[in-house]
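seq:
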Amino acid sequence: MQQQPTMRLGDIKLGRNPRRYFDPAKMAEMVESVRLQGILQPVVVRPLDDGSRELVCGGRRYRAAMEACGPDYPMPIVLRELDDFQARTVALIENIQRDDMAPSEEAVGAAELVGICKGDRDEAALQLGWTRQKLDSRLALMNCSASVLDALDTRTIKLGHAELFAAFTKDQQEKLLPVVVKENRTVADLKKTLEQVSCSLPAAIFDKADCSACPHNSAAQAEMFGESIGTGSCTNRACYNAKTEKQLDAIAAGLRDEYQTVRIVRPGDNHTRIQLVADGPKGVGAEQAKACYGCQNFGAAVSGLPDSMGNVYKGQCFDTVCNMKKVAARIKSEKAPATDAAKAATAPGASKAAGAAKDVKSSTAASPEPTVVAESDRVKTYRVALWRKALRREVSSDVALARQYLIAVVATGQARSIAAEPLNTIWERLIDDKPGVSDFPKAASAAGQLHSDVQVKLLVALTMSAIQGVDVEYLVKMCRHHKLDLAKHWKLDKEFLELITKSEMKVVADELGLRAAMGDNFKKVFAKSKSEVIDALLSVEGFDYAGKVPKVLKY
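struct:
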């Protein structure tokens, strides 16, 4: 039997543990058990770049062994090759799946896992072995204040208390929590108290014009009844929430002309976004930031959280794992030349060079613009339609070429791409008859009687149908062989510009030379609405639009 590998306990570095609270009584029991029997189940560790080992799973066993046996204890280990993100995921899942973890700890861990899964809650629930309903109920706890979560960690309050607190603002939670704890109020008591707490109309983000005469407005209630809650409140939470949601959607819609991704963030989405910055400890670097501005995961967040309802946060990255990797790459690249930079600082002219470098850094650190147009599904659909249309135009005027391409399509097994409808349409128009669904003799006889000119037209129609029907990969091969010049068939139009954001329009303007042609007026134009920007880009006086195609449309 192979012996379990061990490692000196004091040589194992503590990693990040999702479990924040260790029950004293249970820990005491574990310490006593370790004294008598030692550690029976090995902990999971991973190797670090400096040669050391970091604890991934087994925080309670580590602490119990340290207290019972000290740092020289030979700790049973399982060594696994894990990067930072894999280690975090394994630790989260291992801890969350244990029965004795507090719901608040599960909530924090689950929120981090949702971030690692790029906001995909179904995938996170699958990894945890939870139902989607359980995941959502845990994530809702993330709207609890830190004090409420701590109280749930230490079992000072029950889960029911926390679930009730989660529906209200953190200020309200902070005021009520000490009362609940001091007076040992039950969940039912708290529920009764909170039912009396209504929605604040002054804090509403929607238009309140219709609220003044509403019977659910507390001001109207004060006029009708002798007893009422304070003025400025709404007692119809369902109506209040519906209007709030409608306004959040409207705010988000207004941002989609400018950003590739716009999301309304909810409780539990804490780790699904991060502010994109070029500099500082969390910076990705100036050059990387420019690239990030053109990424599909870059955009704006609209807050659906009680404390910041309706607030807009621009410049957000919605791929937090990618962002962390870019930050790590930037830190690594800066460390590498540190020694060389120190040597260069003492070289002649170093002071002048350093000053120049500082100027360059400060200029590149300014809010970068996107460098590419994102290949969204709508843009892809548009450009493929352009390729098909342009190739059909060129081939349709050359009968010999149409025949050549048709033979090549059939010879390479693409005959299935040829649809019958275009041929049938021309057949009916030319000979005023239908070929028949399965009447081969009739169709063969009719084809034999066709004039040669008609046969040629039908052959070209078959080629056009093939170009329209082949898959995109095959179509690209056809375009490359043909050396299709898109500049002959396309110029900037409204349909294309409506598919991209205002930020991406700047990329197109640079590629086509529109920014230079517009001069000082360029910045003024982009301060306007998207529709006005489009009109301005399509009507630059003296600019020749012909022959200019942006990279995103090329094959």
